[in-house]
Amino acid sequence: MDNSDIADLVDEIDILIPAIMKKMEFSTLAEIFGINIDLTISQFHVLMSVIYNEGCPISTLSKSMSLSPGTMTGLVERLERKDLLIRKHDQSDRRVVTVWLTKKGVEFVSTFQKKRMEFLKIILVEMGKENRDMFISLLRTTDEIMNNLLQK
């Protein structure tokens, strides 16, 4: 494979990956699913992080998302005003503030995840077993290669 072939492949990758990612973004999927809740992509990512780290301190959440504590606090405050999150002070250390989903937040995330699963199921079924297996294998291989390159 010569440099010209590689350049062509890189050009195609540079077009395909962002196009696919755009279709997988929250705003695009929310529109497809008919979910009308006024959230930014950052707010959505906070909700998705909280669902897996419920009760975690805001400081831990901000580190895991590579955001400053101030930025995270602002995002959490806006989500709290939308009744999707609630902040609680730790009983043993009042300086520690933990984040929890409200009932509305749990319902929103649950609805989104179910609809996203249906959407991805259609895509994976349409691929067929052979392409699906190859797709997953290629994603795993790509991730492994990238991990190895980044560890050097």
Description:
With 152 residues, this protein is mostly helical. It has one domain: Orthogonal Bundle (Arc Repressor Mutant, subunit A). Helix content is 73%, strand content 7%. It contains 6 helices and 2 strands, in the order αααααββα. It has helices at residues 3-24, 26-33, 41-52, 58-64, 69-81, 103-151, and strands spanning 85-89, 97-101. Strands 1-2 form a two-stranded antiparallel sheet. Helix 3 (41-52) crosses helix 5 (69-81). The longest helix is centred in the last third of the chain and has 49 residues, at 103-151. The model has no long low-confidence stretch (mean pLDDT 88).
Second CATH tier, the architecture: Orthogonal Bundle
Total strands: the figure is 2
* pLDDT averaged over residues: 88
- The fourth-level CATH homologous superfamily is Winged helix-like DNA-binding domain superfamily/Winged helix DNA-binding domain
Describe the global form: globular
What is the distance, rounded to the nearest whole angstrom, between the alpha carbons of the first and last residues? 25 Å
Strand/helix succession: HHHHHEEH
Number of helices: 6
* Structural classification: mainly alpha
Helix content: over 70%
How do the strands line up in the largest sheet? 1-2
Major sheet: 2 strands, antiparallel
Task: Write down the Rg.
Answer: 19 Å
Strand composition percent: 5-15%
Number of separate structural domains: 1
Task: Using the coordinates shown, work out and report the CATH topology.
Answer: Arc Repressor Mutant, subunit A
Tell me, what is the CATH class?
A: Mainly Alpha
Question: Which spans have pLDDT < 50 for at least 5 consecutive residues?
Answer: none
